[in-house]
Amino acid sequence: MPFYHRLGEIPHKRHTQFKKPDGTLYREELKGSLGFSGIASLLYHHHMPTASQSISAEKVAPLEAWDEPVRHHHLDTNNMQPGGTVISGRVPILFNSDIIISLCCPADSMEYFYRNGEHDEMIFVHHGTGVLHSVYGKLPFHEGDYIIIPRGTVYQMELTGERQRFFLAESSWPLRTPKRYRNEFGQLLEHSPFCERDIRCPEELHAIDESGEFPVRVKARGMVTTFVLDHHPFDVVGWDGYLYPWIFNIDDFEPITGRIHQPPPVHQTFETEQFVVCSFVPRLFDYHPLSIPAPYYHHNVDSDEIIYYTRGEFMSRKGIHENSVTYHPGNAPHGPQPGKVEESIGAEKTDEVAVMIDTFKPLKLTLQARDMDDLSYAYSWVE
Q1: Do β-strands 211-220 and 113-116 pair in parallel, antiparallel, or remain unpaired?
Q2: Domains of the chain: which residue ranges?
Q3: In angstroms, rounded to a whole number, what is the distance separating the alpha carbons of residues 28 and 47?
Q4: pLDDT one-digit tens code per residue, 46-98
């Protein structure tokens, strides 16, 4: 997280006595990343966060579709039916050792608590509204939001809208803003396509001091382990630091344009050690008198490209619609379909909105994705 934030009551000095009105101690907890060298927050609980009454586990892992040739894919996800929560309703489509990419059309709010212990989560809200409740407070969300949830965050998601559809990435690496847009102090620079005032932080922290049985499902090491706590996990009276959930809306991304076609890095929104996330938003096209707005054909041998299309007309593609996912492996060149380059000449702007993920390791298609695959897409460049 790029800046310091605090909510609720905290002591004047860290790691010192902080007492309740009855004279007993609040319990201090450090939530940190990368050992003790990454960003962290200090939280103050009514109860010990370690107090579990029972522990049980079940295995979970994406299932790979074997023997898939290296080819381009168009996944038509329109037939996905609402079901489950934002956790149980996830349908993984692509994955490798660094990332799991899923779609989800949840129908229910979460009655249990969840903590992803091995992945940071990026949840893009294609459709829907609700509130992310966590130990850090409330974080309302709506259409177009990127919800960034650091690993280790205990949360519940409350759904308030009738239509919910999310595009998700679970990352083995922390998600952060692009380094080239930050100064040495972490502040976003003037040429960045967004800034700190576009970022929404948790609000309305209300500690719940309640005893009972509260299941927390924790995903780690290929399993989901259920810890039944003897107290409500949202018992935090205050916290401060740099590690917490936050939201950035895709409509607040300010596109960078030029006289000739700009490469995908100008659309970059987040980065990790092993993949980047880009936002394609409505923008003016290039203004050189001989410009070609459609992208040139490209062959990035070291990265796979995934695009999730959310609204508008994507000017370099045909046969693509809202809810489509295209997957272009790094070992095969790709670009506009026949006629799309010529069609783009003279166009002044685009209204497309899409999310792109480029990974630096090859992705594997899941069994669920194979059932969505449009087999004709790989041959759509034949004139």
Answers
A1: parallel
A2: 253-379
A3: 9
A4: 998 887 777 787 777 777 876 678 899 999 999 999 999 999 999 999 999 99
> What pLDDT is recorded for position 374?
93
Q: What is the pLDDT of residues 26-51, one digit of tens each?
A: 999 999 887 788 899 999 999 988 87
Handedness of CA 313, 317, 321, 324 (dihedral sign): negative
Separation CA 266–CA 273 (nearest Å): 18
User: Coil, strand, or helix at residue 340?
Assistant: helix
* Residues 6 or more apart whose Cβ sits within 8 Å of residue 92: 62, 100, 101, 102, 366, 368, 369
Name the token pair of 6: 């605090």
CATH number of 253-379: 2.60.120.10
How far is Cα of residue 285 from the mean position of the Cα atoms in its chain?
28
Q: How many residues does the chain have?
A: 383
Tokens of 313: 């007309």
Residues of the chain with pLDDT under 50: none
Burial, 346: exposed, middle or buried (Cβ in 10 Å; 0-12, 13-18, 19+)? exposed
Amino acid (one-letter) located at 261: H
Identify residue 369 by its one-letter amino acid code. A
Residue pointed to by tokens 């996800």: 77
pTM of the model: 0.94
Cβ partners under 8 Å of residue 106, min gap 6: 82, 83, 84, 85, 86, 89, 157, 159, 164, 166
